[in-house]
Design brief:
- Helices cover about 35% and strands about 15% of the residues.
- By secondary structure, it is an alpha/beta fold.
- The chain has a single domain, classed as Glycosidases (TIM Barrel, Alpha-Beta Barrel), CATH 3.20.20.
- Strand 5, helix 5 and strand 6 form a beta-alpha-beta unit.
- The relative contact order is 0.16.
Length: about 300
C-alpha cells in the first residue's frame, strides 16, 4: 500500500413492498408467504452487488504506514467522517512498523475503529503470519482498556507485487498458507489487499488450483484501482473495500474522491461497500480481539449469506 466524500450514504435498500395478499392463516398460505419473502430478500442481495458502490458508500476508511511521516490528527479525521484506520503492522523481513503502536493509541482515543495489515514477501508464510499476530497482539495489550473497543482489530494480508522490500513477491500458495494460519490462530480469515491488475494476473493462472481459490474467497477483498471503480475480480464475486487513492494519486474527480484527510495532504483513502452501520457491523464480524481469550470461530460463509 504505497474528509468526507459527498455522495449518498444511505444504505442500499431493495423495494421491499410486496403485493397486497389476503392470507387466511393456513399452513399453505403461510408457506407461500414465506417463499415470497425469501425471494424478496434474495433480490435485495443480488441488487446489492449489481449497483455501483458510489450509490450507497462513502470514503470513510484511511490506511497508513511508517511511510506517512506526519503525526496524524485522528480527531480531525473523525470529524471529517472517517470511521476506521488500517495501519501497517509488519513488513519484510520480519520488521514491525515503528509508528504502529503510537498511532493505534491515538486512533483509539479518537474513537476510531482499528485495523492492521502485513506487507508480504515470498519467505515462510507461517512465520510471517505468526510474527504479524505477535506484533498486533502485543500492541493491543498496551492499549488503554477504556478506549480499546471490544470489536478488536481488522486483519489484512497485503498481497501485492513486492517492489519495496527484500524477499520477492508472495505466491498464491503462500497466501493460502498465511490466511489459513491466521484462521487457525484467531478464528477469522483476514482480508486480502491487492491491486486489481496484479490480483487478476496471479490468481487466474494455470498454477492456482480451485481449492486454493476457494480458500482465498473465505477472505474479504480489498482492491486498489486509482482510475475507475474495480470490477469483481475472480475468484471473488464482489469486493468489500476499494482503495481509490494511494499517496494522493487518484485519476478520479477530486470533487467526489478527495485525496487528503485531516492534516494528511497525500492520503490513502478507501470506500467500503455499504453505509456507516454496515461498515461497523462488518468490522465487528471480521475483526479479531487479541484480548478476547479463545479464538472466535466464524462460520465459513460468504458475504451474501451474511446479508
Amino acid at each position: 500500500m504505497t474528509g468526507h466524500r459527498p455522495v449518498a450514504t444511505e444504505s442500499f435498500r431493495a423495494n421491499k413492498k410486496l403485493p397486497l395478499q389476503i392470507r387466511c392463516g393456513c399452513s399453505i398460505c403461510e408457506r407461500r408467504f414465506g417463499m415470497v419473502m425469501k425471494r424478496s430478500m434474495l433480490r435485495s442481495v443480488v441488487l446489492f452487488f449489481l449497483v455501483p458502490a458510489g450509490v450507497f458508500a462513502a470514503s470513510n476508511v484511511v490506511n497508513l504506514s511508517h511511510y506517512d511521516m506526519m503525526r496524524p490528527d485522528f480527531d480531525a479525521m473523525k470529524r471529517e467522517g472517517i470511521i476506521g484506520v488500517i495501519h501497517e503492522a509488519t513488513y519484510p523481513s520480519f520488521q514491525r512498523d515503528a509508528k504502529y503502536l503510537d498511532r493505534q493509541m491515538g486512533a483509539l482515543r479518537a474513537g476510531l475503529l482499528w485495523g492492521a495489515y502485513h506487507y508480504a514477501n515470498a519467505s515462510d508464510p507461517i512465520r510471517q503470519a505468526d510474527h504479524f499476530l505477535s506484533v498486533v497482539s502485543s500492541a493491543w495489550a498496551q492499549a488503554n482498556p477504556v478506549t480499546r473497543p471490544s470489536v478488536g482489530v481488522l486483519l489484512v494480508l497485503d498481497f501485492e507485487k513486492n517492489g519495496h522490500y527484500p524477499g520477492g513477491t508472495m505466491r498464491p500458495d503462500q497466501a493460502v498458507a498465511f490466511v489459513e494460519r491466521i484462521r487457525e490462530r484467531t478464528g477469522v480469515y483476514p482480508g486480502i489487499y491487492s491491486g486489481e491488475y496484479h490480483l487478476g494476473q496471479v490468481l487466474n493462472g494455470s498454477r492456482v488450483t480451485p481449492a486454493q481459490k476457494r480458500t482465498l474467497t473465505n477472505c474479504w477483498l480489498w482492491i486498489a484501482n486509482y482510475h475507475k471503480e474495480p470490477r469483481a475480480t475472480a475468484p471473488w464475486s464482489y469486493w468489500a473495500m476499494w482503495q481509490y487513492c494511494g499517496d494522493g494519486k487518484c485519476g478520479l474527480p477530486r470533487s467526489a474522491y478527495p485525496t487528503s484527510v485531516a492534516n494528511i495532504r497525500k492520503a490513502e483513502r478507501n470506500i467500503f461497500r455499504g453505509d456507516r452501520t454496515a461498515l461497523q457491523e462488518f468490522w465487528q464480524r471480521r475483526a479479531w480481539d487479541p484480548a478476547g481469550g479463545k479464538p472466535r470461530r466464524e462460520s465459513e460463509r460468504t458475504l451474501t449469506a451474511e446479508l
